[in-house]
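Folded chain entry
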Amino acid sequence: MLEIRKIISEYDKIDHSNEKVALASVVSLEESSYRRIGARMLVRSNGIWTGGISGGCLEGDALKQSLNAIYKNESSLVVYDTMEDDNNQIGVGLGCNGRIEVLLTPIDPGDPSNEIEVLRSILHAESPTIIAKTISGDSELLSKSQLIDYHQELPKYLNIDSSSLNNAIQTVLQKKSPRIFDLKSGENEVKVLLEFIRPETRIVIVGDNYDVNAMANVAYTLGWEIWVVGRLKKLNKELVSKVARIISFEEHSKVKPHDYTAVVLMSHDYKWDLTILQHFLKEHPPYLGILGPKKRFKKMDKELLNVDLSSLEFIHSPTGLEIGAESSEEISHSIASEILAVFRNKNGQSLKLKEGPIHERLQ
């Protein structure tokens, strides 16, 4: 979501009466790639771009291709293929031995349903979003993208049979990742990418001591929405500028987590941590971290007679991954890494121990 925010911010700065833009999006992958499906890059006709579709090796060529799409006012699909590790194939060396398809779409600022506006509409979503995007056919068909509200009756998309579209959507929701489907649109078959976009991660930091600043800085860098439960008068101005919401300790029960909320208790006040912990035991957030040693956690467990804290998988105490963290900044990185691992259903091990590709292969 952080990249989407940056792209929208840049888009809003542009004088569209004097300048044109295109959006380059990764829509298909085979084997290895630095970025995944959904990576985006906004290209302005003056040559400035925001975002990225690779680790830096494709952006130069994608810029040229995007400027060509802007000039022609036509969407196009560009394939970068280094499966055979031949740098001469596309004039750049990917170093990833992969095949990447990038969709280049000129953006019409007069179209209220252009892809930038679709992305803008999901910025504050509190549940996953699905965007349908056609990645086969002529230039006009390639420009078709649509937000799918799967909570209601499915909208008409390219005259695709609603039953087939619903089955595809359920697969994406189950896998929690993008998938490509061959679907019937009238008499034709079209290749459709259903992109799964997680809502912005929300982190609720309970505390107002100096180490809250470090935790908030890491979360801010990651583009997370930051809530702080603590005393406003103890928070510095820089921290306050990064926080979406501040709640006093006394009003902690107003915090209602959603499925992408992480809570970290780090008030250094045992009584407040214990009190606020009891509130979140009822709310059951997907991640609840408690700063401090195990003996502190065991003391809490003994005091809460009606619950076995150690049996609750969403509680992480001590919070964070074991990386030898010492400073507040290192501890914050450790905690943020564990939150990412939990939300992405990973174990947080060293990648050198992982068998097979780094990322799941899409079926």
Summary: The chain is about 30% helix and 25% strand. The two ends are 24 Å apart (CA to CA). Residues 328-343 form the longest helix (16 residues).
